[in-house]
Amino acid sequence: MKYHEMEERDIEKGLDTNYNEGLSSNRIQTIRKKVGYNELAEVEKQSLLLLFFSQFKDFMVLVLLAATLISGLLGEYIDSIAIMAIVLINGILGFYQERKAEKSLQALKQLSAPQVLVMRDGKWIKIPSRDVVPGDILKFQSGDRIGADVRLIDAVNLEIEESALTGESVPVSKNTEPIKAAHVNLGDMHNMAFMGTMVTRGHGLGVVTSIGMNTAMGKIADLLQSAETMETPLQRRLEQLGKILISAALLLTLLVVSIGILQGHDMYTMFLAGVSLAVAAIPEGLPAIVTVALSLGVQRMIRKKAIVRKLPAVETLGCASVICSDKTGTLTQNKMTVTHLWSGGKTVTVSGTGYNPEGCFYIGERRIYPLEDVPFKQLLSYGLLCNHANLVTKEEEYSIEGDPTEGAMLVASLKAGLQKDSLLKSYTIEKEIPFDSKRKMMSVIVKDEYGKRFLITKGAPDVIFNLSESIFWNGKLQYMSEKLSHQVNQAITQLAAGALRTIAVAYKPLDSHAAFKKEFELENNLTFLGLQGMIDPPRPEVKEAVKECREAGIKTVMITGDHLLTAKAIAHQLGIIKGNEKVLEGSELSRMEVKELEEVVEDVAVFARVSPEHKLKIVKALQNKGHVVAMTGDGVNDAPAIKAADIGIAMGITGTDVAKEASSLVLLDDNFNTIKAAIGEGRNIYENIRKFIRYLLASNVGEILVMLFAMILALPLPLVPIQILWVNLVTDGLPAMALGLDKPEENVMKQRPRHPREGVFARGLGWKVVSRGFLIGMVTLIAFIFAYNQHQDNLPYAQTVAFATLVMAQLIHVFDCRSERSVLARNPFGNQYLVWAVISSIILMIMVIYLPMLQPIFHTVSISMKDWLLIIGLSSLPTFLLAGSFFAGKSK
Ligand code: ATP
Questions:
Q1: 406 CA to middle of ligand 1, Å?
Q2: In this structure, which residue's CA is closest to atom 10 in ligand 1?
């Protein structure tokens, strides 16, 4: 028998599980041994060996290897072995960098791997969906992705979108009835839910029938394995730039070689020098270092509680000019406490803080007992029946499982002495119309002990008010007259103006067929019962974060489903509204075309009473005005806006799988402050990449120019090939990596956001590369000429001096690269990785120059202290000559 044909109870037996307790830990181990993990087999990745060899497939490296092989055959053993060793070490370094980049990308994937809610040993727990085994009981709700193939055992208004499997994008309604037909297509299995499909409505329970490659999705897994490109715009731009740089390096090398040959150097030496120069000057390691810098930045972001799901977002983050943030939970704490009740013209205040269910009720100074006061008793008990939240205690701390709004209402009823369990003895809940952000309400159909059925609805007060025909007032049912309407609205306004989130409760008696009616036919003609007003304190750190964003040229916009006045009051508290920024309501947004919205959107700081679909309009309008928009969201309906935003941000705690999958950034703590931190980090990563691009290219320009000028001036070779390769490996390698780990400049969040289409060499970087590179080349050449004149017959001496000058000039210049302003603008020892990289480069250089064993390999000789003075003096020039302009305030 197939699972869809079976009765629920038979499946429980068949899979040897228990619907109330779930599987036990012991059983799970046994089952796992048999069936393995719940994962789809991945396509073969590039093997390590292949990755290693791919490091040497660069054309110039191959030419160099061929050349050294020839020189080896010609008897130049030491040279050829040394060059090969350096090429090998370079390759190992490249391999290591690429592995690291790949591994951290893999780790990223793991972090954003889906989780499921499962019953184990009698408790609901969240586990990675990889750990699910057949027989597990899963619980899911709107916004969740189903973690395995399950047979449904409970379905409340459950609708699932199965397009990934069936191609049908209209969600399918699900139930738990066995299907007895002979042949059933996947699309018709109404009592099954399949791995990878998405719950769009309602909630349900299911028992896992198959996992991994045995699921319906597993059977078509091969079709689904599409490699998502993780390249960022900068990486693409660098790739293009790389091609230009390669051509330029080759052209210049050709020039060096041709001039050298014309000047009478022997062909073979020039060829080897030329190839070495080309290998050194081509920044082949750049893409890998960029990836490493990006992924290290991503790891730093994780420490700050932001998970980057798509690498390009790291760069875009630095360009963000507007953050559109949800209010509840992101700007506020989402720890709600009911402080006010209103019913029939009377306002009751409630004492107590947080979720601690202890507190009293007062009208003015007078204590009241809500259970003795019918309207308030009804307001609280109906709020409790239409409620999914649970109060849990852990080490004397109270917390809420479920929606905090409902949690607050639950705690208020507990304070009055109501218990859900005892209420459920008198009332049976027959059906639920779940909450959604568009309707802004939720209802249940209940039957009381006398068999009378009625609908209880709770939701946004203006929505409930508009659906109410009557009101419970002075112990009587009364028609909602103009006068009473006015009173209700006044109460709503008053609570909202005090920054309270307000929920209205209403009810309606039903006839016996009511349950079969469509919900829009049910939620009307209500009787308004009252209001519960709850505080949701702002997160303490957000005010400062909003201020810092403003200083960084980033505007914060609050988007909320809450009442306009509640939103406005909190926006004031957080400094989001400072002057005459506008507040727009969802109803106005609905009437506006995107074009009309564009005209005002930049002046609006708060959007209140919005539905998720308005978010898309807001994103579009802002983008049309040239903004780079970060947009937060958590629900299924937020996904289109999250996708459309330049930086889509999903909530890690309250966010649904759908929102997370659409996002490029997930906030582990749902906190606005984390967005700010991620933006700061995004800006820093970009600046660090600029730093090492500047360093590497200026170094390369220096290396090429010293050779070129020497050839033009008919001088001997200032550097031998192995020295050039050594500089490429040591001096260029380590410090560049350390620059990638640099701390942000103090002013990184004091500048306007970068333009997204800004070129790599913008803001004077190109000039810096050329000018510093030119100077590095020049001082090396001067050192060489000077030493050559001093030691006429000792070319290796002059070459060693030139080598030391080039290395030192680069190692001093690297400190200049830390700042956009000047080497003097920052403490040069602020980056300890860099200090260590420089120290180790210097030690290696001294070893190469002074160790008798290494001297023949690197063609070096010991040089005198006097010459070191010359070397240090000259090599400081490129950095400090131009640093002077910093004081004149015209540093480029
Ligand atoms: P944000 O500020 O992040 O947009 P929000 O909670 O205001 O969050 P929604 O969750 O879309 O936005 O809720 C919209 C409105 O629906 C709320 O302002 C509230 O009036 C009402 N509401 C929220 N939760 C519930 C609930 N569980 N049951 C009934 N009504 C609710």
A1: 10
A2: 437
pTM comes to 0.79
> Is residue 860 a contact partner of residue 848, using CB atoms and an 8 Å limit?
yes
Whole-number Cα distances in Å, 854 to 78, 279, 781? 10, 22, 24
Is domain 3-42+108-226 in CATH 3.40.50.620, yes or no? no
76: left (phi over 0), alpha (psi -120 to 50) or beta: beta
Pocket test for ligand 1, best of 324, 390, 435 (most atoms within 8 A of CB): 435
Euclidean distance between CA atoms 346 and 374, whole angstroms? 13
| Residue 493, Cβ density class (10 Å: 0-12 exposed, 13-18 middle, ≥19 buried) | middle
Residue 140, φ and ψ in degrees, nearest 5: -145, 160
- Catalytically active residues, by annotation: 326
What is the band of 110 on the pLDDT scale with cuts at 50, 70, 90? low
CATH 3.40.220.10 is right for the domain spanning 233-302+678-891: no
- What is the whole-number distance in angstroms between the Cα of residue 562 and the centre of ligand 1? 6
Reply yes or no on domain 306-332+540-670 having CATH 3.40.50.1000: yes
Alpha carbon separation from 238 to 243, 759, 772 (Å, rounded)? 9, 10, 21
Digit-coded pLDDT (tens) for 503-526: 999 999 988 766 666 666 789 999
> What ligand 1 atom has the least distance to the C-alpha of 634?
3
Tell which atom from ligand 1 comes closest to the C-alpha of 461: 20
* Domain range 339-535, CATH class: alpha beta
Ligand 1 centroid from CA 203, angstroms:
18
Q: What pLDDT score was predicted for residue 10?
A: 86
* Ligand 1 atom, smallest distance to 502 CA: 20
Q: Which residues line ligand 1 (CB under 6 A)?
A: 326-328, 403, 405-406, 435, 437, 440-442, 458-460, 503, 560-562
Tens of pLDDT along 333-373?
988 999 999 999 999 999 998 899 999 999 999 999 999 99
CB-CB neighbours of 277 under 10 Å: 28
Kindly calculate the radius of gyration of the chain based on its CA atoms and give it in whole angstroms. 35
Q: Ligand 1 pocket: which of 331, 436, 440 to mutate (most atoms <8 Å of CB)? A: 440
